[in-house]
Amino acid sequence: MYDRILTADQRDRAVGVLLGTAAGDALGAGYEFGPPRPDDYPIAMIGGGIGPFAPGEWTDDTSMAIAIAEVAATGADLLDDAELDRIVRRWHGWSRSAKDVGIQTRSVLSASAHAGIGAASARQAAAEHHDRAGRSGGNGSLMRTAPVALAYLSDEVGLVEAARVVGELTHFDPEAGDACVLWCLAIRHGVLTGEIDARIGLGRIDSDRRELWSERLDVAERSRPADFTKNGWVVHALQGAWSAIATTLDAGGNHLKSGLESAVRGGHDTDTVAAIAGGLLGAAYGVSAVPVEWMEILHGWPGMDAAGLADLADRIVSSRAS
Ligand SMILES: [Mg+2]
After folding, report:
1. pTM of the model
2. How far is the CA of 208 from the centre of ligand 1 (A)?
């Protein structure tokens, strides 16, 4: 199916993963924490939101994903602690001037700073956060997981491990780990085949949680994104994103755009749900499905535009094509 050298279509889809993520994020930014909207409510890259953000500007979801992507673009193995240290350091640097940092992520990053900025202290802080709060299933690891899939297109087993390990730098909860594994495997499958299948990774989830996740996907398919009102929780965020994708299949060639608009109309954590949906839609349809008017204004930390993001995605897959 894939021998490290991607076809032109697969390469377009690999680039689509990051551009789809950023497009969903920037589209949802202006509606964050707003209410659900009706089906005919116009959605555009209006900017604003809690940043406030400029029209076309992405938020923390894409910024944190870029930090992972930058390290992956060096050809690094993300299972190596030295590389995870680099990711955590980059997140720290970003968070110092970021317009928005998720509550759980900020708490973990600042706690880890006291013990020396790196993967070990971040994991420790994430576990302590989980113990203290009794849960740590925010959507903050799922929202940034897409580039991990690009780093393991030729290694499904490695991807299962890396999705969980990168997630656990800030989110200890197994629910968050499961969600990252499921979504990354769906993204990988999308890039390689052009197909959308959120169930492709169910066999890689622990057997005692597999049925639960399967039911959650079923529920998403017969619901609307707005039904997942607690979408700051990783489970509802994934269900909202999957619902947005699964209920807009009739949009045909406009599926990427329609799916992202639907995700935003779900309300609440709009940018994150749309960023999650965008990673998978971009994987299946490629960067060529991202509307030109969005591509033209997409930008954000660290002073990057759509072309920069495309180059980053390209370097992740190129660095492994040998
Ligand atoms: Mg955000």
Report:
1. 0.98
2. 32
